[in-house]
Structure formats: structure tokens, C-alpha cells
Amino acid sequence: MEEAKLMQIRKFCCSLGSFFPLLGACGRSGMRLGPALSLFEADAPGTPLRPYRPLEGCSPSSPAWDPWSRSIFFRAGHAVYRLTSAELVELVAGDPEEEGDPESEDEDEEAAAGAGPANEDVRMGSPSRLTSDGQGSIYCSSSVEGAGECLMLRVQLPAAWQVPAAEPAAGGAAAAGGGLQRVRVSRLVTLEDHAWELAYSQSAGSLIMGSNSALYRLPLGPGGGAEPAPVLLAGRRSQEGLRDGQGDRARFSEVAGIAPDGDAGGLVVLDRRSGNGGFVSAVRRVTLDGTVTTLASGLAGHLHTPFVLPNGYLAICDGRTQSLMVLDLGLKPLPLLPAPAAAAFAPPRRTLHADMGALLDAQPDGTADLTLVVAGRRFPAHRAILIARCDYFGQRLEGGFADGTAAELSLPDADPAAFELLLRWVYRGAVDIPPSLAPAVAELADRLLLPELCADAQAVVLSGVSAAGVVGSLLWAERLGPSFSGLQSSLKAWAVEHYEEVRGGGSLRRLMAEGPGLMEGLTDALAKRRRTQ
Description:
Blueprint: H1 2-12, E1 22-23, E2 32-33, E3 40-41, E4 50-51, E5 61-66, E6 71-76, E7 79-83, E8 89-94, H2 109-113, E9 128-132, E10 137-142, E11 149-156, H3 172-175, E12 184-192, E13 196-201, E14 206-211, E15 214-219, E16 231-235, E17 245-246, E18 255-260, E19 267-275, E20 278-286, E21 291-300, E22 303-308, E23 314-318, E24 323-327, H4 341-344, H5 352-361, E25 370-374, E26 377-381, H6 383-389, H7 391-398, E27 408-410, H8 416-428, H9 438-447, H10 451-463, H11 470-480, H12 485-497, H13 499-504, H14 508-514, H15 516-532
Parallel strand pairs: 25-27
Antiparallel strand pairs: 1-2, 3-4, 5-6, 6-7, 7-8, 9-10, 10-11, 11-12, 13-14, 14-15, 15-16, 17-21, 18-19, 19-20, 20-21, 22-23, 23-24, 25-26
Helix pairs in contact: 6-7, 8-9, 9-10, 11-12, 12-15, 14-15
């Protein structure tokens, strides 16, 4: 256990550009960085060792402690390496100087698996955000410059690298299995954007991914493969802020790092925003049902790579000052060794929102007692859930109307795509609203007496406002009445802020013709703004 603990402590300090032991991290009586470790490498297992010299510009980064092999995995250049307990560095996959895409899983199996101890024929982009599942797989994101997308990769480790929990960690040739070993690099999913933070949640059996201002969960099967697409966990893409809450009601500024802790499978998220010529960060805790709470805020510095130390402290790297920030937030560290085999494939922790969503996804399964008909589409649903979760359905189904006992309920003039999202929100309490459907969802939510969903959809409309579309959105919001007055005010403020762009597009003539009162209010607001400048 002490061997594993010491290796895990060394792992974090790789984020400072080299490997340093963090002395005192097993207790709570003071910590300090020791001298940089002396590392070694060899051409092949059993050959003479020499000092490890990384290529220029290929310093170690993005470290991950793997309890299954009791090794540290890290990225250098376009390759993934591992550091054994004997301070031996071994190339795992890729070429540090040459980037590329790994073969997809449907390509030739031998080519996808790679060849040789270092799998040098496997090409990777810029592997980063390495994380371990503790069961023989390393996951990372990988992007190729100019590709406009990000791959989520799985690196399956050789069985010979596994160190049983009852045995001390091996190093050098013993850890490598005494001969040539292969890993298999395979794609999980392809995603937009490049900046995806990554962590593995043992309790959820999922990868937790952060991009921009949202967190997603990518469920993994017993064999380590992924579901077709990630599911929103908390926050909302392209809607920044610092707001606690559950699911898509919470707001993040910029997800800059994710670390699992040992408290019921929770996550620690480093939330960063720019300000005063630098960055200011907050530490947020996220539970597996998507509930977000802020643990600390106002942290200055270029912070990244949060990690829960064996003593429960949260350590965070500052990339500019090459230092560590250590916080006592009452966190629990993860187990240092793999879970027992019987628990390795335990089912994910169940939550009410997930179970309700699964119930909806299972339709029609014979449990629904009401069918909602929207523009010809039929949606099986549960009468009791609709009554409990939506005032509109409560009134129609319990108000003494004939609808109360009907087997079908029609919703004329509703958009079926918008209603599908609304129904999912009724069951799950959260839904990711595409910008193209946000106006329709907002109108339908207002009509069906769901003010929270209406507000969420209006926020999506506001987040996508442009100089070409702001006038149309203003006229739309005015037509819909008091429930949209807040959005109308925000749109007007945006139009004032970007007045020259709006005027250049020629849409103000439409506003004069169709909304003279709005035009007058816009002109007054613009004049007031100019007086105060």
C-alpha cells in the first residue's frame, strides 16, 4: 500500500514539467516538494538502462495514476508513456515527434493493435487528459491540428502489466512482462472542439467529459466500450456563469480540470474564468445526479490539473509559477489499489433522474396509460407523472374534464420535436436544448405551464443572438407576452450594445414597421447609454 501511495503522489507533480516526490502528502502535518526524480529508459526489456532524456519540447504532462499496473501514464509530444515503480520510462503508444490518427476499430485488427513493445506504428494526435479506469484501460482525448474534432481513445494495457493487489509493485522488465508487449488503441467517439477535460468515475461506470461550460457522461460497457454519444450531466454548452444547481440549471465558466474523489463517486471540477488580466478559478463539486455546489472561489493563477491527494487535500498546479496550491476542502481520496474483482463490474449508481429517463426511453413497454398525440406523432406516457410534474396536464387530467379518463390526449398546433424535448424534461428534470429548437420549446413550455423549462429555452435563444437575428427575436418575444419580458429586455440591451452591427444589417427598418414601440424603446436606451459614456 505504501508503494502505491508514493507512486500516486509522484504522479501529480509531473504536471510541473518533471517528476517530483510530494513529501508529507500521506499525512496532514505539512508538505513540500522533494528533488526531481532520476528517471531511466532502455531500448528493450533486459537491455542496459540509461538516463531518460525527453525530446526537446516533449516534457511530461497530463499524468494519470493507474492502480491496475501501479504505474504512472503520461503524455510527451504525440505519444503516451508510462513510469514504473523502478523509475523506468517506457513508450506505450505513438511517436513523440509524428502525429496522426489511430486506426479505427473496423480497420485491420493487426494494424489497429500496433506492433512491438512501444506500438510505434500507432499514430496519435495530441493525447491529453489521461485517466485510468483501474481495470486495465487508459482513456485520453486526442486531436490533430487543423482537424476540427477531438477523438476519445481507449488504450488497453497488456495483461502482463497487471499487479495483483496482494503483491508489491514490480518494475523494469518484470513490470513489462519480461518481453515484447502490445497495447490496443481504439476510438470510442469523435467529438467537436479540442478542449475536452476527462476523468473516470468508477461509481458511474462512465467517462466524465468537460467541454466549454458543460459536463457530459459517456457510459462504458463491461468491456470498456462506449455508448454512441455522451449524455449531459451538468451545465450547458456556450452558456457561461457561476451558478449552483442541478443538471442544465447549473452554470460553469470554463471547465479546466476534473478529478474524482472518494465520496460516493463525486467529482471535483476546476472552473476557470478570465479577469483582471489573468484567471480566477472556483472549485465545484458535482455529484452523479448532476448537482453542482461551489466549494471555493476567487482562486487566482493559471490553475489546472486538480488532484485529490492521499490525505484528502486538493492539490492544483499553477502552470505559470510552477507551483502547487493545496486546499483542505474535506474531500475523500480514491482507493489506491484496484477494487476487488467482484466489484469491478458493479452496476452504476442509480439516481431518480436516470431511472425516470430510462422509463421514458423504454416506451412503449406496456406501462404507459396515456398516449399524447402531437402532429401525428404518438408519445406513450404515464398519467401520474404528467399530473405531478406539469400543471397543464394536472388541470386537464384532474379538473373534471372528459380528458381525465381518455386514453389519448391531443395537443394541436404543437411542434413534435419540441414536445419530445419537453416530455424528456418532465421525466428527467433536465434536457439539452438545441438552439434551432429553443424558440419552439420556449413557446410550448409557456403554453403548458412549465416556467422553468421556458426560462431555460429563452436562455438558449439569448445565447445564440446575432446582429442579423436580434430584431426577429425581439418581435417574437414581444408577441408572446409577459413570460418573455425578461428575454425582451436582454435582447434590447444586446441590440444597444451591438447597435452599429444591427444597423449595418438593415433590420432596423423591419423593427420600425412591425414594432414601432420596440424601436422607440431601443432608441431611448441607446440615447441613455451614450449619455452615460
